[in-house]
């Protein structure tokens, strides 16, 4: 009778087609093509992923700074910090506010909620500050607003410049004119700021006894400086055949000109600035001092764009450092004081070493307990391929290569190793217990899949 089978195998072709994975068992070429595709896509994603020290965060900080020269910390807190905090707190998107008041300076840090629109928060805070701008002391400068993300609170690299022959004013001036533009032009660098530097400034040290003797106040001296030291754009004059740009010398250029500046007139006598003050060419501030290796130095911080890879950008900065060092003036030295990418490179090297050690251990364990080279090759191919394929998923979900994702990879290696050993052992067991006995019972000429004759 037709329809009957002489022999029935435990596994038939119909059973092999029940699951999707059976396709790769019956046609290894498809499995090979899929693995190659995963490898190619993973490698492309790896070179497109950004390498950072920490994951990207969309939380931002708005810093409001107000300068009030000559005011005490209590005065700054009562007349500036409190007034600004009161109106800033009513803006939307604020998580919490921190403020500090010191002599002549008010600093308010506004921490925004995670993923809140930075532009919207900045517009609201600016509008709130404008509401109370007229209530601040007239002598106080206008508040300055800066926005910084949590990723850019600290620089990725710090460069140290020091010299035994040049003072800090000269070093800072050279860095601002020559070094800073070159580093800012490096691709991926957001900004390069001079830290701990001293910018040239004319220092006027008032003498209280002389001011009292001449009947002057510090405010009058300041008004005289503002009125007699300014830049003026006069314009130009044109004739029928000639055009001349007009220049007016309304600013002071050296120490002697400042000393001869007329501050006031008393009973027909001119009172000059040198009569009531000591004038020297110094720095804007002496409140900060930077030391590196026990020696006074000037730092320059390198901040990387959030969309760029920190490792690649810092490597570009390292590439231009030899040219910068070669062009420095005699006596000025430069060195890399801090490089955050070293931690990232060390973490990447540890990941590679861990993966290699894991593959060696898995290879030895599987070969000892199973004694099959085929069983050894499977996890050696599956584990690196699965990790490389995960790079494509990281790119799709917007992840970056950072310390946290590297830690996740280390943990994933252990899971993949455990699963690889268990799966290979089970596959080997099924082959020995089911497939081999079944195939031995079948003769190559049995044609067990054909129906018998009636």
Give an account of the 3D structure:
By secondary structure, the protein is an alpha+beta fold. 47% of the residues lie in helices and 21% in strands. Strands 5, 6, 13, 14 and 15 form a 5-stranded antiparallel beta sheet that branches. α3 crosses α13 (373-396), α12 packs antiparallel against α13 and α12 (341-370) packs parallel to α14. The termini are close together. The relative contact order is 0.14.
List the main descriptive attributes of the protein structure presented here:
Multidrug efflux transporter AcrB transmembrane fold, disordered N terminus, 21% strand, Multidrug efflux transporter AcrB TolC docking domain, DN and DC subdomains, 4-stranded antiparallel β-sheet, single chain, 15 strands, 454 residues, Alpha-Beta Plaits, alpha+beta, 5-stranded antiparallel β-sheet
Secondary-structure topology with pairs:
Blueprint: H1 13-16, H2 22-26, H3 28-48, E1 60-67, H4 73-88, E2 94-102, E3 105-112, H5 118-131, E4 144-149, E5 157-163, H6 168-184, E6 189-195, E7 200-206, H7 208-214, H8 218-228, E8 235-238, E9 243-246, H9 255-259, E10 262-266, E11 269-272, H10 273-276, E12 277-283, E13 290-292, E14 295-304, H11 310-326, E15 332-339, H12 341-370, H13 373-396, H14 403-441
Antiparallel strand pairs: 1-3, 1-4, 2-3, 5-14, 5-15, 6-14, 7-12, 8-9, 10-11, 13-14
Helix pairs in contact: 3-13, 12-13, 12-14, 13-14
């Amino acid at each position: 009778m037709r329809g009957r089978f002489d022999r029935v195998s435990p596994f038939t072709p119909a059973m092999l087609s029940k699951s999707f994975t059976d396709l790769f068992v019956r046609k290894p070429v498809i499995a090979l093509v899929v693995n190659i595709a995963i490898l190619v896509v993973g490698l492309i994603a790896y070179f497109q992923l950004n390498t950072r020290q920490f994951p990207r965060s969309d939380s931002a900080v708005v810093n409001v700074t107000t300068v009030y020269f000559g005011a005490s910390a209590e005065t700054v807190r009562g007349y500036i910090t409190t007034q600004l905090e009161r109106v800033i707190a009513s803006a939307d998107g604020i998580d919490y506010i921190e403020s500090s008041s010191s002599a002549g300076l008010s600093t308010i840090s506004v921490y925004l909620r995670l993923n809140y629109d930075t532009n919207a928060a900045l517009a609201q805070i600016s509008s709130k500050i404008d509401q109370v701008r007229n209530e601040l002391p007239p002598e106080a400068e206008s508040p300055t607003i800066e926005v910084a993300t949590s990723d850019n609170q600290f620089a990725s690299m710090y460069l140290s410049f020091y010299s035994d022959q040049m003072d800090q004013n000269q070093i800072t001036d050279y860095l601002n004119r020559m070094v800073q533009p070159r580093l800012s032009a490096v691709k991926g660098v957001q900004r390069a700021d001079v830290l701990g530097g001293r910018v040239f400034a004319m220092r006027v040290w008032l003498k209280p006894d002389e001011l009292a003797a001449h009947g002057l106040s510090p405010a009058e001296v300041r008004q005289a400086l503002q009125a007699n030291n300014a830049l003026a754009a006069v314009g130009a004059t044109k004739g029928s055949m000639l055009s001349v740009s007009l220049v007016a010398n309304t600013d002071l250029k050296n120490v002697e000109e400042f000393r001869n500046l007329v501050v006031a007139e008393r009973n027909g006598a001119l009172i000059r600035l040198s009569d009531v003050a000591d004038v020297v060419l110094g720095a804007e501030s002496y409140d900060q001092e930077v030391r590196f290796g026990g020696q006074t130095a000037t730092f320059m911080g390198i901040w990387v764009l959030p969309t760029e890879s920190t490792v690649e950008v810092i490597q570009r900065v390292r590439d231009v450092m030899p040219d910068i060092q070669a062009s420095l003036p005699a006596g000025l030295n430069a060195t890399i004081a801090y490089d955050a990418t070293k931690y990232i490179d060390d973490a990447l090297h540890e990941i590679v070493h861990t993966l290699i050690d894991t593959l060696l251990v898995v290879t030895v364990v599987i070969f000892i307990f199973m004694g099959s080279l085929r069983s050894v090759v499977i996890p050696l191919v599956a584990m690196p391929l699965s990790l490389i394929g995960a790079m494509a998923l990281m790119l799709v979900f917007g992840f970056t290569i950072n310390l946290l994702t590297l830690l996740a990879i280390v943990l994933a290696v252990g899971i993949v190793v455990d699963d690889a050993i268990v799966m290979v052992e089970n596959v080997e067991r099924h082959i020995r217990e089911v497939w081999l006995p079944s195939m031995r019972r079948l003769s190559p000429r049995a044609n067990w899949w054909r129906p018998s004759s009636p």
